Each structure stands twice: as C-alpha cells, then as structure tokens.
C-alpha cells in the first residue's frame, strides 16, 4: 500500500510504494494531497497490471537517452558512430534539455519544419527521425519511457539517376591530373566509393602479381571486406601509379604507404596552417579539381558517387551476374543494388534493335485470306 508524506522544505507531497518488493520513494509533483493520492494509486495500478512503472520518467531528458543510444551503437557495432554523430548534432540542437515523455509526434513535426527551414532534404530529415525513433524505442525497452510516440516519415525525392556515358567519362578524365585519372578509373570500373575506398587505398592492398585489389573488413560502409581481380588496363594503370610513388619515396627518403598520396606540395606542413598539401601524405579530397574537370568537359553537376551507378550498369550490360556485381561494388542488399542499376534511353533503344530481327517475321502484316474459287 502506498504512503504519502511531507519532506522538509518541499512544497510537494512525496510517496512511497513497492515494485516487486523493492521500495520506491519519489516526489509526486503535486501540492494537493488528493492529487498526490491519485498519483500513487496510478503507480500501484500499473505495478499490479505488470506494466512498466517509471519512478523517474518525468526527469529523463533527451541527453540521457542520446547517451544510451550512443552506448548501444558502440557496444553492438550496428552503426558507424561518425555517421550517427551527424544526426545527433541536429537533434541535440533542437531537443536539448527536453524531457523524454514530452517528445511527441507534434514535437517531431516541429523538428521537421525547423530542419526544412534550414534547407535539409526530406531524405536527410528521415535519417535523423530514424535515429530519434531508435532512441525513444531504446528508452522504452530500458524502462525509461512509458509510451512510444508515433513519428511519421516524409516522402522522399526519387533517387538520383546520374551516371557516366563512356564519352562523358573520358572527357572528364582528360582534364584531371594523371594520378587522379587513375583514381577515377578505379571508381568507374569497380564502383567503389571515392572518399572512403579509393583514396584510402594502401600499397599493401594492391597485389600486382595476382592482379587483385583488396578492401579490409571493417573499412567499408557495410564492414565487409572485398577482393576483386583487376582488368589488364586497370592493373597497368595502378602499376604506373605505384611507380610514381616509388620515385617520390626515393626523393623524400621515407616510406609512403598510400596508393594516391599528394605528388605535389610542401615537404613539411607549416605550423598553425590547415589544408596544406604535404608531399607523400594521403590525398584527402579533390573537390575543386573535380568541379573544374566537369565544367571543362561540359558535364557540370556530375558527382563522383555517380561512378557507383555507372559501374553497376556497365557490369550488368556486359553480362556479369548481378550477384557477382554486388560483391564487386559492395552492395549488400538487392533493393539498393537495383536502385543503382540505371536504365538509359540508349539501353531501351538497344532492346528495340535486338527485337527487330526476332519479331520481323512474327509481327509482319498479313494479307487477308481470299478464296481461289470464283464466285458464281
């Protein structure tokens, strides 16, 4: 049976009740005894019905739930924390200090309006709402939230369908430095991510004798390793690139582990300055060079991520089994792979050409049947 009592210097009634024989003491948050008694009865009723009773539900704030979710991601490894922090950053700004039970569907709608005013795309907002929903569900499972709010996602724009035709790719590549020509050739042929999978390649991942290129487990987006066999032209290009790295090693007198280091720049980074290219260090990015090359080639607006769609399309059109192509590009699910398999008008025209010979005799117009017997 619950008890009500007063504590010194407190304007609220306090209560004591039991959950599985364990005494719980907390403030009711009510000044009137009648309201406090109703609060205790509600707690006892939930305990008797086997429902979760949250002694501190009104005190749990967003920050505590966010910390729990970070710990969950860290211990289970189910999500990249670097990527998750991008979502937490925006959620933290809006929900800072908010009590967890007060986060509702209306709160989520207000957050959506706030992010849309900031210019965020619906897809980006949906990824952030997914983190918020996971956070609330985890709090519910941990007994820190009584009821889960309904959070509705937004309709997203159609997936991007950009890809390179062969002539476009060759035109853009011509306007890049030699080492970057090789880097984009790897992405074009294999569909690997430029920032995280191509520019991060180390020499130990290239085996020219076996003609293989390897990504280590845990270094890819889906954490799975990859081994691909290199076409002869790509093998020759990588051999030439490693030759340039060997020459730079001799000049600097130190080992360079990267396949795509800075081949120009300063030998030592100046103190206190950022974004300085240092000879032999790994290339971090080449955004300006890429934009300039696309503009010079007459292909403005093309993205380096379009290489993934291009590689998928090229492999499937070349007759590579889709399951094998997925192993090369690193797509784990068929649904995502299908999104990257883009069909162009030229592909549809090719269908018409292929069908022309097959259907010409079948669908040719026929003369109406006439009887050879003269009419009387």
Keywords for this structure?
hpI Integrase, Chain A, 6 strands, elongated, DNA polymerase, domain 1, mainly alpha
Most strands sheet: 3 strands, antiparallel
**Overall CATH class of the largest domain:** Mainly Alpha
How would you describe the shape?
Answer: elongated
Structural class: mainly alpha
Contiguous low-pLDDT stretches (5 residues minimum) are none
Helix content: 40-55%
Give the SSE order as H and E letters. Answer: EEEHHHHHHHHEEEHHHHHH
Using DSSP, what is the number of strands?
Answer: 6
Our measurement of the CA-to-CA distance between the termini, rounded to an integer number of angstroms, reads 113 Å
Using only CA atoms, what is the Rg? Answer: 31 Å
Can you tell me the CATH superfamily of the largest domain?
A: Intergrase catalytic core
The pLDDT mean sits at 83
Query: How are strands sequenced across the largest beta sheet?
Result: 1-2-3
DSSP helix count?
Answer: 14
Number of domains: 3
Strand content: 5-15%
**Which architecture of the largest domain would the CATH scheme give at its second level?**
Orthogonal Bundle
Describe what you observe in this structure.
By secondary structure, this protein is mainly alpha-helical. It has three domains: 3-48; 62-141, DNA polymerase, domain 1; 166-266 and 277-348, Orthogonal Bundle (hpI Integrase, Chain A), CATH 1.10.443.10. It has helices at residues 33-48, 62-76, 81-95, 105-117, 122-141, 166-174, 178-190, 194-198, 232-252, 287-296, 306-317, 322-329, 334-340, 345-360; strands at 3-6, 13-19, 22-27, 206-207, 212-215, 226-229. The strands form two sheets. Strands 1-2-3 form a three-stranded antiparallel beta sheet, with helices on one face. A three-stranded antiparallel beta sheet has the order 4-5-6, with no helix packed on it. Strand 4 and strand 5 form a beta hairpin. Helix 2 packs across helix 5 and helix 7 (178-190) crosses helix 11. The protein is elongated. The model has no long low-confidence stretch (mean pLDDT 83).
């Amino acid at each position: 049976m619950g008890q009500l009592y007063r504590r010194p210097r407190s304007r609220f009634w306090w209560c004591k009740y039991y959950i599985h024989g364990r005494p719980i003491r907390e403030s009711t948050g009510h000044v009137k005894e009648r309201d406090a008694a109703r609060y205790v009865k509600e707690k006892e009723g939930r305990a008797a019905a086997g429902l979760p009773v949250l002694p501190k539900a009104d005190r749990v704030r967003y920050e505590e739930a966010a910390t729990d979710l970070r710990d969950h991601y860290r211990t289970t490894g189910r999500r990249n924390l670097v990527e998750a922090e991008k979502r937490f950053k925006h959620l933290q700004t809006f929900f800072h200090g908010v009590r967890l039970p007060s986060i509702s569907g209306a709160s989520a709608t207000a957050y959506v309006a706030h992010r849309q005013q900031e210019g965020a795309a619906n897809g980006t907002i949906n990824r952030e709402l997914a983190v918020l929903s996971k956070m609330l569900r985890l709090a519910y499972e941990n007994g820190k939230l009584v009821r889960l709010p309904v959070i509705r996602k937004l309709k997203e724009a159609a997936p991007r369908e950009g890809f390179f035709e062969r002539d476009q790719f060759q035109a853009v590549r011509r306007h890049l430095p030699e080492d970057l020509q090789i880097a984009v050739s790897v992405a074009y042929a294999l569909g690997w991510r430029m920032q995280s999978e191509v520019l991060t390649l180390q020499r130990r991942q290239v085996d020219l004798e076996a003609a293989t290129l390897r990504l280590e487990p845990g270094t890819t987006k889906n954490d799975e390793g990859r081994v691909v066999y290199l076409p002869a032209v790509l093998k020759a290009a990588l051999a030439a690139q490693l030759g340039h790295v060997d020459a730079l090693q001799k000049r600097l007198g130190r080992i360079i582990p990267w396949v795509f280091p800075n081949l120009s720049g300063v030998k030592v980074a100046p103190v206190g300055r950022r974004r300085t290219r240092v000879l032999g260090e790994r290339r971090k990015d080449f955004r300006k060079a890429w934009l300039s090359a696309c503009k010079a080639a007459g292909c403005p607006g093309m993205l380096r991520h379009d290489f993934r769609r291009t590689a998928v399309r090229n492999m499937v059109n070349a007759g590579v089994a889709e399951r094998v192509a997925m192993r090369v590009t690193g797509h784990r699910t068929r649904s995502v792979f299908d999104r990257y398999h883009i069909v162009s008008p030229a592909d549809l025209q090719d269908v018409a050409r292929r069908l022309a010979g097959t259907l010409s005799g079948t669908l040719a117009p026929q003369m109406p049947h006439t009887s050879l017997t003269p009419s009387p």
